[in-house]
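Render this sequence as a predicted structure.
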Amino acid sequence: MTLTPLTRPARLRPGARVAVVSPSGPVPADRLEPGLDLLRGWGLDPVPMPHARDAHRELDYLAGADEARARDFQDAWCDPSVDAVICARGGYGAHRMVDLVDWAAVRAAGPKVFVGYSDITVLHEAIALRAGFATLHGPMVGAETFLKDPRTQESLRATLFEPETQRALGLEEARALVPGRARGITYGGCVSLLAADLGTPHGRASARGGLLLIEDTTEDPYSLDRILTQLLRAGALDGVAGVACGSWAGCGPYEKVRAVLADRLGGLGVPVVEELGFGHGPTGLTIPLGVPAVLDAPADGGPATLTAEVPALL
């Protein structure tokens, strides 16, 4: 099966209602409120869902019970008055709630703007594979990068309101790890979560025709090697058209991370770009998932780019 473009949601307008959900870990109040204020400053109407501020009584790494987190996500998506669903934070827990969502109901409700990264990779994959909708790999309301980095903020704001201005993606320091040029459909996210999805009933069966986006945090080089090796051994990268790498915050000295990426991905025979600027780093660009794009990794050492062939939102 070859990846095909997914159904894109509509862009946001001033006054749009945005549901804020916590599908994974609990969000500190001192981060959530400033994030909501940023959205209000853009003319949006952010509304935290009932369990967005919850914390599990025994498992304090979860934002409340699995059923409550799944219900918040599903209710937000299926509410016709809600124009977008943005996550409060990542952490851990999306794998515990993803199968509690009624995906037929989500699919019937139609596409909506959905934003998140890190553990939210689980939901990006589920929305793509079980509903057929394009999503945005981007900053979360309670993420420190969103609160502090103007470029991260502007990348998301422009994507939400003026998506046609955000088709050429990537930081200036992005370069070819393996040179070449490829076209495909964007997908991916946090690489450890992609590996954790392998073998699950609704996991991705093919990468053919895909442009894979990967990044991660606090995974030592040997752990990244294990994760990538697992994906390779499982055949999960067979047929991939190209790979774009984002940030590797807290994963050790970058030269060691780079050596792992080159060793494990260099044998794919496809273009590989490094330091594109999405994920857990100091700047987290918003990248559309499920859209056709071109990955350009020049051999002459010039800046590498990921260019979406269509705007992320209609």
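Summary. Residues 29-41 form the longest helix (13 residues). The chain is about 30% helix and 20% strand.
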